[in-house]
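A common beginner's mistake is to predict each chain separately and then try to dock the pieces by hand. The better habit, illustrated here, is to supply every component at once so that their relative placement is modeled jointly.
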Amino acid sequence: MAVHSDSASSGKKSSNGPNELLTFNAENMQNNMKIIYYSRTFLSIIGGVVAGILGFTGLKGFVFYLLLMGLTSLGLVAKAGFSTHTYFDSWNRVLLDGFLGGLMSFVLFWTFAYDIVHIF
Amino acid sequence: MGLGFLVGFLGFLILIHAAYSTIQYRGLLKITEEEFSGPPLNVVIEVTLGLVLCMWAALTVPGKFLSIHPDSEENRIVSLPANLDFMIFNHRYKVFSVELDVKLKH
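With all components supplied together, the output reads:
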């Protein structure tokens, strides 16, 4: 009995091995990506306002954005309970997706807040 | 959900207040004719607090992550009807109706 169940599980594993990447729930994956985009966009807007209030100019602001996104990634990984592979198929989804799109909103709100606080 | 929104709104209000304090500080500097070297300490504290609150809101408001493994515990019930092979279009009346027809004919 033990031998039989053992062989069955090993057979299942070997058949699952090559197409492991294809067998995930795409609907839930999309839901997770939506959550990531939401978090990143909101935090880049808030980060832009903060950078504008603190009066960052030039490269300092971009370094601030980099730090903020690193912090956000850390928060998202912590939200996933440090087991990213149950919720995402690769690390890039958590670390990189939404980075450039967020940068646009960051620069927009950065200049907006800087103008309001420091120039007018 | 409601709590997260409230916290995010509070963080945003704190940020607006910090911006207003900075504007006042710059007005003060204009009067005393000094250069702006950096934001005052209370603005930095307010901004940090607002950022932390907003970060908490940004991480909680969008909802929970769902597992993408097809064989995980929470996906079991959902994935069964998603597979069309498991859909059944038979029901008890299908058998019943024949008998009723037979009865009516007699």
